[in-house]
Specification:
single chain, 230 residues, alpha+beta, 4-stranded antiparallel sheet, 3-stranded antiparallel sheet, 9 helices, elongated
């Protein structure tokens, strides 16, 4: 038996029966989101209960009927992934902050200011989110929340999601070492010239322009020609 003081009880109903399990409150949210944590570390008590606080357990017949197994780890995995995990105030705050950071990272990577066609400064984005009091769902995937966040931000911060194609010409002495970096960004077309130069077309989120130019200029010491394709 694990530490009950640091546990939560998850309630779950299936086939007209109620099931309860004790889980580690510090690990269960990460497990539910798919992080590599063993279910044996998350399940505090290796039992499936009718009433956890009273210690009333389900029969093996009940478990097989509802889950097709009596293995507490397999059953706990199902309950955690399909049930609702209650949030402590501390965990709610932590998850909201994690999701906020992920949402900001996605917007900074994918979006531009349509007035300038330039990436959006991080401070401006954060200030706009504070201004409109963005709601972040602690249990909803960050990418799934971006659309609603963008809609809330548009009255105070023009945002445009766009991908751009850039033609990149690299001289022979830097071609081989640059290829790996270019491949990270997604090569749409490539050509090695008879002189050994590398010519590629990459397609990237518009918000990554600054990062892309910085990396490719650094690896070529500025000996690169780039051209944004229309």
């Amino acid at each position: 038996m694990g530490d009950l003081e640091n546990s939560l009880i998850i309630h779950f109903e299936k086939d007209g029966m109620k099931f309860e399990i004790y889980v580690d409150k510090n690990l269960v949210y990460d497990y539910k989101e798919g992080k590599p944590i063993g279910i044996s570390k998350v399940l505090v008590v290796d039992e499936i209960f009718k009433d956890a606080r009273k210690g009333e357990r389900h029969s093996e017949d009940d478990l097989i009927k509802a889950f097709g197994t009596t293995d507490p780890n397999k059953i706990a995995d199902y309950i955690i992934k399909h049930g609702e995990v209650p949030l402590t105030t501390e965990m709610r705050r932590r998850l909201i902050e994690e999701k906020r950071k992920k949402i900001i990272a996605i917007i900074l990577r994918e979006a531009i200011d349509p007035r300038t066609n330039a990436p959006i400064p991080e401070l401006r984005l954060k200030n706009a989110m504070e201004q409109v009091k963005i709601h972040i769902d602690p249990l909803k995937d960050a990418e799934a929340q971006v659309k609603d966040v963008i809609a809330a931000l548009r009255p105070v911060l023009p945002i445009k999601f766009e991908k751009i194609k850039i033609e990149v010409r690299i001289p022979p002495e830097y071609a081989a070492r640059s290829y790996g970096v270019l491949k990270e960004y997604g090569i749409k077309k490539e050509e090695w010239t008879t002189t050994g130069s590398l010519v590629v077309i990459v397609e990237i989120p518009a918000g990554l322009q600054g990062e892309f130019y910085d990396r490719i200029n650094k690896i070529t010491h500025g000996n690169v020609i780039t051209n944004v394709l229309k």
